[in-house]
Write the structure tokens for this entry.
Amino acid sequence: DAADAEKGGYEHFMLKEIHEQPKALRDTLTSRLYDDKKEIVLDKIKLGKEELDKINRIYIVACGTAYHAGLIGKYSIEKYARIPVEADIASEFRYRNPIIDEKTLLILISQSGETADTLAAMRLAKQKGARVMAVTNVVGSSVSREADDVLYTWAGPEIAVASTKAYTTQLACMYMIALHLGMLKGTVNEEELTKIQESLKASPEMVEKVIKKESAIKEFAYDKFNVRDVFFLGRGSDYYASLEGSLKMKEISYIHSEAYPAGELKHGPIALIEEGTVVIALCTQTELLEKMMSNIKEVKARGAYVVALAKESDKAIEKEADKVFYIPDTQDDIAPIPTVVILQILAYYLSVARGCDVDKPRNLAKSVTVE
Ligand code: G6P
């Protein structure tokens, strides 16, 4: 029927959209990153050096998956532009009397551009004189019309309730914004810029490579689909990526999952580790790898079954983990892009194996336009 035709041969929209990510990333990145110039051209972003110099605080505000992209945005903007950034959930931000004035930049992330709490946060900030920049997937959406600056994710229409290609393209936009602000500020050096730009340009290819592992991930999902609880652990960007992996899993497979910064293990979640508990350990951050290795040892000693995600060349992880899925070697900041794609595929096949309605999970909506 018509719906099947729209799925382009895939069983579900979610799987189709997972596979569309290399193209979505290319479309989002290529018109903005140039090969010949060390320049990033962000179409509708008019915020220039003079305006940016007046900004002393940035808030990134969003809901759900978009908020998870915002956390990576915070990390990247602070690293490259050295401006203090707070990432907040729109429904929390709007009710906590946040400190906003003309020196505030509010960055909103919203796939639909219509989420009620995100719109309310935008209007509150504008009223108090903040400049508003929006990252959205929908041209003509409320957010795109009301923001001062707009950067589109060129993901194309996203039908599945669980967001995939919108998220990875939001990440691409957050990296580009971070570099752009860093260049305006003069806080990012040439060498750093080249390295991260090269990795960003390579990200569609990295995603193609991890998608090739689909059948191995599927096999693993079919083996473990009966699991009751899953704990995700990570540090730095890996922690932010694990929040998204955990959300995907609970949304569509209804498996109870939690994501924890690995350093917090001893402050709670370790009490819940018993024989056979599945722990997914994200280990892509070079400087934090040793720390993650010790966390893996700690949960293994209590009987956990550990699945690690790591960079291809970090083979030592095989000595500690029960199962490893590799991402291509990359600049650490960009690692969440291929990492999350593995977690999307895992959540997808867990959902299929458990007989859930992948594209329309119970109680969830694609766009939450009422509070
Ligand atoms: C709903 C969707 C999520 C999405 C969130 C924010 O919960 O199911 O996939 O991340 O809303 O939506 P937005 O359109 O603002 O990105």
User: Anything to note?
Assistant: Residues 63-66, 110-112, 115, 118, 161, 163, 364, 366-368 surround 6-O-phosphono-alpha-D-glucopyranose (CB under 6 Å). The longest strand covers residues 104-110. DSSP finds 14 helices and ten strands in the chain.
